[in-house]
Request: fold
Amino acid sequence: MKSDRQLAVLPFDLTVCKLRSLQGIDLTMKPCFVGVTDDEISLVCRTEDTPADTLEREDSWRCFRICGVLDFSLTGILSAISAVLAENQIGIFAVSTYNTDYILVKSNNLDRAVEVLSQAGYCFI
Reply:
């Protein structure tokens, strides 16, 4: 099976939040996804690592990642996964890194996401 069809569920809850600043944020926590624009600072981290002084936060996310290192020339991988989930009314929050993509779904949708992606030919390892 191609590695872009292999997914792994991360074994913890995540929080997506908006911050006033990066001051005091432990950038060594894992996972730690930070997005900084001219308009906002967003952080995705384990729920227990969420800073106390967030401006807004959304708890109860779970995550799976595409296994392996994805070459930049590959196309449509995240699009195909999100299409399967969208067809089944499952919203996502996606984060990409240099190596791969991470797909977050609300905790109450995780089992259903695994089910529909498995039916679509994805393998969870």
